[in-house]
Amino acid sequence: MKILHGVAVLALLTGPALAQGEGPHVNLVPEIEHKSPEEKAQDAVRQKAYQESLRKIPDAQAPNDPWGGVRGAEATQPKAKRKTHQSN
What mean pLDDT comes out for the span 45-50? Predict the structure, then answer.
């Protein structure tokens, strides 16, 4: 009977050990593709053109507020409510 229990324990312990072992080698991350010198040169030209186009964009001005004249220069703050104490 002890031998049967020993075999059962051994069989049950080998399952998790096999699950942690070597499996099929699936590469989920593709290999890095290296660029040719021509592609690197094209990327450099593209990057330079992009940087030049960014320099041509004018700086952003203050936002246009069409209701600014109606509201006035100062923004109105809501008035604090008075606390009234009632003594009984």
Answer: 98
